Amino acid sequence: MKTARSPLPTIDAAPVEGYIGYYGLEDWWQSAFTPDERALVQATLKPRLSGPGATLTTGSVQSSSENVGQFLTVLAQWFGRKDLAPIGVKILDKAKSSCKGVLDKHLWLSSYIELRYAQRDADPTALDDVIRACEDMIALAPKASQAFKKAYLSPVPPSHRGYGQLITIYKARGDRAEARRLQEEFLMVWR
């Protein structure tokens, strides 16, 4: 009597370790990206994320000062080129639900604005997404300014991509009055 064989060979995949394993992102890593995309992510990060004994998906990570949202937001920033931005946006989509607190949200929005703006020529919805994200980031600005000053003991917070990008968009559209209003608001809020 013959036993039925599976039409597909079974392949024992190596477990995902490294930073992806440390943050419990194994299922997402396997389902969100194609094998070619995973290879591209690893090739892009290899020179940047290969500390002693750990890479993105191999080795052992013992600890990290970042939470999963922060890790993914920083990871996405390596994909700011137009041709890589879709991968960065996939990473940010996962990061969004893990961002806790004002600073995490501020940094996530900054990265999202950068990556979606890079897609504006290829994706007709990208510029509207950027404008909404800029407006969200601006709404968060008073709290973020105070949080940066408290967390980093600095009298001045870092740059604000939301204001800067929205001012650029309004200038490009010829709406100098709105650009000027935002610039004045920025100087009052982000200090």
Number of strands: 0
User: Over all CA atoms, what is the radius of gyration?
Assistant: 20 Å
Q: What kind of sheet is the major sheet?
A: none
Arithmetic mean pLDDT:
88
The low-confidence parts are: 1-12
Tally the helices: what do you get?
A: 9
Strand portion: under 5%
Shape verdict: globular
Name some characteristics of this structure:
60% helix; 191 residues; globular; disordered N terminus; mainly alpha
Provide structural commentary:
The chain is mainly α. It has a domain at 101-189. Helix content is 60%, strand content 0%. It is built from nine helices and no strands. The protein has helices at 18-22, 26-32, 35-45, 68-76, 85-96, 101-118, 126-152, 161-172, 176-189. Helix 7 (126-152) runs antiparallel to helix 8 and helix 8 (161-172) packs antiparallel against helix 9 (176-189). The radius of gyration is 20 Å and the shape is globular. 28% of the residues are buried. The model is unreliable at 1-12 (pLDDT under 50).
In short:
By secondary structure, this protein is an all-alpha fold. The chain is built from nine helices and no strands.
Structural topology:
Blueprint: H1 18-22, H2 26-32, H3 35-45, H4 68-76, H5 85-96, H6 101-118, H7 126-152, H8 161-172, H9 176-189
